[in-house]
Amino acid sequence: MLYLFGSTILFFVGNLTALMSAEMSKITWVTNALLYVIYQLFIAFEWYKTFSKKEQLTIE
After folding, report:
1. Rounded to an integer, what distance in angstroms lies between the CA atom of residue 9 and that of residue 7?
2. Which of 1, 24, 44, 60: disulfide with 17, CB 3.0–4.6 Å?
């Protein structure tokens, strides 16, 4: 959800800053890339948590 909202806001702002300076436009795209990396880290963390080796229960 964090990436979705952040990316949506940045795309709206990116459309407005495209008419402004190139430096401001670069900042919005770098921020979007940073949010995407954070999003991928959350996915990797959840994947690790889900598929990490767990103790197997023995049924006696």
Report:
1. 5
2. 24
